[in-house]
Amino acid sequence: MRAVDPKLTLVARSLGASRWETLSTIVLPTVRPHLLTGVRLALGIGWVVLVPAEMLGVTSGLGYEILNSRDQLAYDKVMAVILVIGALGYALDTAARRLLGAPATG
Length: 106
What we know:
By secondary structure, the chain is mostly helical. It has four helices and no strands.
């Protein structure tokens, strides 16, 4: 909410905009980039934490599969799992950008 210029809300109020109209035409478009950044960071941090957590205490998952393949000296499988982790991370980020209506970058 700090990103919203108070003058814009005052103009909307003086023009007779309801709370919903002010929210939908001024507040949400102003905070959308900040919201998108927060969601993308949360997804990224969650993904970065999930895979190592699977390496520690479970007997399934991508992190476990990396360690299991390493112990079996199946380095091709380790590489394949790492590529799957990267592809899923990229897909999550792309889905977050599309769902929240961000412009496509890189």
